[in-house]
Amino acid sequence: MEKSPLAVKALVEKYLARDYTNPLAESQIKGIKFDLLKCLDMYHSKELDALTKKVVTHPNQTYMQNIKKP
């Protein structure tokens, strides 16, 4: 993330700005928010996948694969 904090911030802001209002839910619960759904959509997005491949050194490896074992 240090390599591209502005790109990450812009992507997060793009997804948080999405309109996820639901008239049926709003009629039952006033002021309901669907921010978790926005985060899930971003997590599964092609944009995040592309950004990850651009800024992460080894995007297909886990932390455990990268640490040196004794």
UniProtKB/TrEMBL annotation:
Classification via Pfam families: Tai4
Official protein name in the record: Immunity protein
Organism in which the protein naturally occurs: Pseudomonas syringae pv. aceris
